[in-house]
Amino acid sequence: MCESRGPGDNSKEDNGRRIEPGTYPLATQAGGKYVTIGYTGAKTPPKPGLELLKTNERTEILIHPGVNFLSSVGCINPTKKVSGPLSDMDFTESRTRVIALIDDLKTFAGGGFPKSNGKRIPNASVVVEGEPVLSTESVESVLEAVAGDPNKGLPAAVFQKFAPRPASGSKRTIYDGYIGAFTSDKGLKTLGDHGVCNNYDRLMHFFAQAAMETGGFTLIRESLTYTTVAAIRNAWRSRAAGKTDQWIEDNLLRKPQALGDWAYGGRMGNVKGTLDGFNFRGGGTFQTTGRDAYTAKGKLAKVDLANHPELIEDPQTSLLAACAEWKGSGCNAFPMPA
Description:
The chain is an alpha+beta fold and 338 residues long. It folds into 2 domains: 2-128, no CATH class; 137-222 and 282-338. It is 36% helix and 9% strand. It is built from 12 helices and 8 strands. It has a 4-stranded antiparallel beta sheet. A two-stranded antiparallel sheet has the order 1-7. The radius of gyration is 24 Å and the shape is globular. Residues 133-138 have low confidence and may be disordered.
């Protein structure tokens, strides 16, 4: 079985840790992504799964097929033996194990097995005994080693587990720029100086936020070159509601500067009728957006982003601005698990 990092804790919803030791009744799972009865025969949802009950504040703690080492957020993934914590699980093999478990439970319960999802399975429970005691080299241990001592270095391979490196092209170039900044001596000093290198959880939250904002470290500036009316309507629903398709096509399609002014002009410190909306569009590690944000983060980072917003495209400057935003927003004040 593969599961999230400990220590186990059921006192907080969505804490992402493994569940704490205990005995948990099993039930047929009823959900959009996983079910016990009526799962599909492929990777598409709903996939096979079972639910653990009586998990205190935690909900939706499941037994389900694993995809890779980070696919579980407190759930349990049956799998064959993997070579190490950095190794991906085989979805097909893991799925087979989940189905075999469901079939065994059907045999065990006989006629008492539920005929529908969301029902308790009689006399069936999962028993979790103690916390893991084996220390292994993993993403967690690497980041924990870096926390508090940036001189230990941060291997680029760690980021493959946040987001795979693109095979080629401009996205790969951007990805390499971000990772190069994160793992450089200068980048690690920046992280340390701003208190991000404090513990594993803080580093993980920071890099997870960066990965989300940048599309897996592949986006340096927000693209405002839209090619369909539907895409614009989807991105700015309320703003586009009063515009006809023809107006959007004539005024905004393939016109990034005009779209920037329409979408961002007159707010976030941007002056309407200028290039502010375009120049101060989303950029960098945290996709900073708007003249006010560029100015504020630039002051914190001691970089003149107000007059030179293009500097956000430099990975080191971008990291510096993100760290300044993180610290300036009080993120270091939030308690993190020890």
